[in-house]
Design brief:
alpha/beta, 2 domains
Length: 230
């Protein structure tokens, strides 16, 4: 079995289509047709990845995402939003609340499978990153244990946020373009808008708090990690 996917969507046709394609690809699949049921299954069963609709009865997808990201047990589960809400503001809000990716309906099952596999590959590859412990002032990043802390306080990051931070730290002082970060963090060339990088950087800065001063924006180019805070 490649992994367990939880699909939360109130459209029976979507649930059937996604479940069929995921099972054909070798995944285990659990489903929920409303937000309350989906949130409970996510918290109780801890799936490897969640496909989450935004417009759900009971609890909407944004609230589910917010609740899962606030809980250390579920904070690291990759979440891909699968929704008919395709406007830029909907996409930005979803990513800012903690989604790792955003797929709009109608969607290509092949593209959805690609995105799922990329997310799970990144999760599986996390322990293989170099065994190093980074310190920048009171910020500590333990790469093999996937732990980030500031003044001894644990900071919960998603897999994408952690990988983004580690790549910038490992290339300290060097500016990384948005396109380069898309290739190295998301492993996509064209499937994700470069504004996704900006959204995740904003979220990462919010979580790092005072330590975010090490993250420098180079206008019109990209981002870098500073060896000394300004």
């Amino acid at each position: 079995m490649k992994g367990k996917i939880l699909v939360i969507d109130d459209e029976p046709g979507v649930l059937e289509l996604v479940k069929y394609n995921l099972e054909e690809a070798g995944f285990g699949v659990d489903t929920a047709s409303d937000g309350v049921e989906g949130l409970k299954k996510a918290q109780d069963n801890l799936p490897d990845l969640i496909l989450l609709d935004l417009m759900l009865p009971g609890i909407d997808g944004l609230d589910i995402c917010r609740i899962l990201r606030a809980n250390p047990k579920t904070a690291g589960i990759p979440i891909i939003m699968l929704t008919a809400k395709a406007s830029e503001i909907d996409r930005v809000v979803g990513l800012e609340l903690g989604a790792d990716d955003y797929v709009t309906k109608p969607f290509s099952p092949r593209e959805l499978l690609l995105r799922i596999k990329k997310r799970l590959e990144q999760m599986a590859a996390a322990p293989e990153t170099p065994k190093e412990l980074f310190h920048a002032g009171n910020l500590a990043v333990d790469v093999p244990r996937h732990i980030v802390s500031f003044k001894g306080r644990r900071i919960n990051l998603t897999a994408i946020e952690f990988k983004l931070l580690v790549i910038l730290i490992q290339r300290v002082g060097r500016v990384q373009s948005r396109e380069q970060l898309l290739r190295d963090v998301w492993e996509y060339d064209t499937l994700i808008d470069t504004r996704t990088v900006d959204t995740h950087m904003r979220r990462l800065r919010d979580k790092l708090g005072p330590a975010s001063r090490y993250l420098d924006t180079v206008r019109g180019v990209g981002y870098r990690f500073l060896d000394e805070a300004p």
